[in-house]
Design brief:
globular, mainly alpha, 15 helices, 3-stranded antiparallel beta sheet, about 425 residues, Glycosyltransferase
């Protein structure tokens, strides 16, 4: 079943050949069509299931990020817009099925990590609670509305939004109010939670707790700052949709109130002083005086804050944080013979993530920096024409995950940005977020 017009791909690729050359355009065409043709499965119930690539499960995070480069063309491709709407409907239904799960099966077939010690079900591939997993479905539903004006995908939006808010509220007091527990046997420490599945001890400070990071690694400290920043933004989206489309004042007021609380808590408890730079954002804090200073390629990240809409790219606090992230002071920034860029503790030491390179380019103020990063991504694809999860900083032919659809999507986003064809951009100022 077709999920897009071939004409859309042809028109965009032809424009890219003229603006950026054959090498970039050919890789773009392969990455752009790969997700549409191989990762999305329309279902008989009017929804669509999206696998992440070489893992046959649907991540709420990945399935939103995988669709990012298509948002710019929805107004001219009704079939593509219908596909995004089908994915959005599926996501909202999955949030209602289990708001603590991050990845789901196509059917109630018990695939995935059924041996985990948590409230698992046959629909759930993995039940690692990540604050971003609640945010991404809201973002996609909002983006589709903003890009096209359509509302037919919002039938269960209010219920899913209330489910998300209920979890975010409970996790503001994780020790007292949360019932979530997660343990996995015979695994690396990053795949399970300490303290019998409760995670490291935190003290309430207004932030909302997360068990795992967007990398699916356990949080070292429970309050993930990029995740909370993402929640600030999507709760404002929720308020806007509730007022303008759903006419639900109660939902709008609660979403706006929680967004404000989280934003104030980030600025009060997520800012630390880094020697030689000044005030920057920590990656994680615990409300008890400890913080983690690093960044990870997986989004939401500190590097991605302008992209997700929390701040402007020239925000002074962001620029100071970016200086830290893209330096040797960040333990996951790597320099090598093949490239220099942001990595992740999720992959082997010294590996760089194409997603991190793309996010650096998409948030750069300087066009030449964007071009340089795009050229680096082209040069480090190991001759495959596709992006990978990570590659060795000194040898890009050594890489992890041959098929990782999210990375392909972020490459496409950077290509469109450099070519001046990335038309759908989130503006933080329009949300009234403080800079």
């Amino acid at each position: 079943m077709r999920v897009f017009r071939a004409k859309t791909v042809d028109e965009v690729t032809d424009a890219l050949r003229e603006r950026l050359g054959v090498a970039v355009a050919d890789r773009f065409e392969r990455c752009f069509t790969d997700t549409l043709e191989a990762a999305i499965e329309p279902l008989s119930d009017g929804t669509a299931f999206v696998i992440t690539g070489d893992i046959p499960a649907m991540w709420l995070r990945d399935s939103t990020a995988q669709l990012a480069p298509y948002l710019h063309f929805l107004a001219d491709d009704e079939l593509l817009a219908d596909t995004v709407a089908a994915v959005s409907k599926r996501q909202l239904a999955l949030v209602l099925r289990d708001p603590y799960a991050n990845a789901f099966n196509r059917d109630d077939d018990g695939r995935g990590h059924q041996e985990d010690l948590t409230e698992q079900s046959g629909w759930v591939w993995e039940r690692k609670y990540e604050i971003d997993s609640l945010c991404y479905p809201i973002q996609l539903a909002y983006d589709l509305w903003r890009a096209t004006g359509r509302t037919d995908h919002l039938g269960s939006f209010a219920a899913a939004a209330w489910a998300a808010i209920t979890v975010l509220r409970a996790e503001q007091d994780h020790e007292r109010l949360s019932t979530y527990r997660f343990q996995r046997r015979d695994c690396p420490p990053s795949d399970t939670l300490v303290r019998e599945g409760r995670g490291t001890l935190v003290a309430p400070n207004g932030l909302s707790w997360s068990a795992f990071r967007p990398s699916d690694d356990a949080c070292e400290l429970g309050y993930n700052i990029p995740g909370n920043a993402f929640a600030v933004v999507v709760l404002r989206y929720t308020g806007e949709l509730a007022r303008e489309v759903l006419h639900d004042d109660a939902l709008a007021q609660e979403a706006d109130a929680l967004s404000g609380e989280l934003d104030r808590a980030i600025r009060a408890h997520g800012v630390v002083v880094q020697e030689g730079i000044g005030e920057i954002l920590a990656y994680e804090v615990d409300g008890r005086g400890s913080d983690v200073r690093m960044d990870d390629s997986n989004v939401p990240s500190l590097l991605s804050l302008p992209l997700i809409g929390w701040c402007a790219a020239d925000d002074p606090l962001y620029l100071a944080t970016r200086e830290f992230i893209l330096s040797d002071r960040n333990p996951y920034f790597h320099r090598g013979a093949a490239a220099s860029g942001l990595g992740s503790p999720h992959t082997p030491p010294g590996t760089i993530w194409p997603i991190g390179l793309a996010i650096q380019g998409l948030t750069a103020l300087d066009h030449e920096e964007k071009v340089d990063l795009l050229n680096t991504m082209v040069a480090t694809d190991a001759g495959t024409g596709l992006m990978h999860e990570s590659f060795d900083k000194d040898d890009s032919t050594t890489f992890t995950r041959e098929w990782f659809s999210w990375a392909n999507a972020m490459f496409c986003e950077l290509v469109l940005d450099v070519a001046g064809l990335r038309s759908y951009v989130r503006e933080p100022d329009a949300l009234g977020i403080e800079s």
